[in-house]
Amino acid sequence: MSVRSERLFGARGGGDEGEHWLTISDLMAGLMMVFLFISITLMRSAFIERDKIKDIAVAYREGQVAINEALWEEFADDLERWEAVIDSENLSFEFKSPEVLFQAGEIDLQPRFVEILNDFFPRYLAVLKRFEAAINEVRIEGHTSSDWVTAAGEDEAYFKNMWLSQGRTRAVLEYVYNLPVVAEDKRWVKANVAAVGFSSSRLVLDRAGMEDRDASRRVLFRVFTNAETQIRKILTE
Fold first, then answer.
1. Residue 169 near residue 195, CB atoms below 8 Å
2. 14 belongs to a structural domain
3. Mutual orientation of helices 154-177 and 111-129 as an angle, nearest 10°?
């Protein structure tokens, strides 16, 4: 092969190689653009989900604050004489005096507790109906101490107290459900108010970490907003 031919083929070979690498460069650039678009799409989806959760969290907090403020406005002057407290974080209205609520080991409402419920529940229901679109459930919770005098052991005491706490919350729900002033709202109460007994599973402890038996014996009304359900739904999708 002549020098001229070698030069010519060498130049052509060099040209083909340049074209070859140019094609790969174009392919890599194209792939990078595809990955970039995928990344942008994923980031956009993540931002949308984040914003959804943020909006629900804000709505949840605003709803909590509004319900809490309404409860305080309605009942602030009654708490001391009823021996009750409002927990702003849990949206719970707690009746703390066990001797006012029930006799030891019994599920029948004490006369004083009946008087309180006659005054409390219609007003409580009126407050909640203002926020019914945001409410998922209203729970009447019954809690006991770990004591049961005739129980053979801790497990037996737990289940006897479970029966007791469940019976007490059912008695409370049955009583307020049948109040004449609640007649027009029975359907709403039936659909949204539940009675739950927790036995001694959620004891109140003193500063030393020991069970406070009197404080553990309590009944409370607690509101659950539907924002919690929406957040859980988004997180599991």
1. yes
2. no
3. 70
Q: Please report, for residues 24, 39, 134, 195, 234, the alpha-carbon distance to residue 100 in angstroms, rounded to integers and kept in the order given.
A: 84, 63, 32, 19, 43
What's the pTM value of the predicted model, to 2 decimals? 0.73
Is residue 25 situated within a structural domain?
A: no
- Which CATH number is 144's domain given? 3.30.1330.60
Q: How many CA atoms lie within 13 A of 44 on its CB side?
A: 6
Q: What is the pLDDT of residues 67-125, one digit of tens each?
A: 999 999 999 999 999 999 999 989 999 999 998 999 989 999 999 999 999 999 999 99
Cα dihedral sign for 197, 202, 206, 212?
positive
Angle at 53 between CA 49 and CA 57, to 5 degrees: 170
| Rounded Cα–Cα distance for residues 229 and 234 (Å) | 9
Two structure tokens written together for 173: 């729900």
Q: What is the pLDDT of residues 22-53, one digit of tens each?
A: 576 766 777 777 777 787 777 776 666 666 66
State the Cα angle at 41 between 232 and 52, rounded to 5°: 30
Supply the range of the domain harboring residue 111.
63-236
Q: How much of the chain exceeds pLDDT 70, in percent?
A: 78
For residue 199 the two structure tokens come to 């036995």
Number of domains in the chain: 1
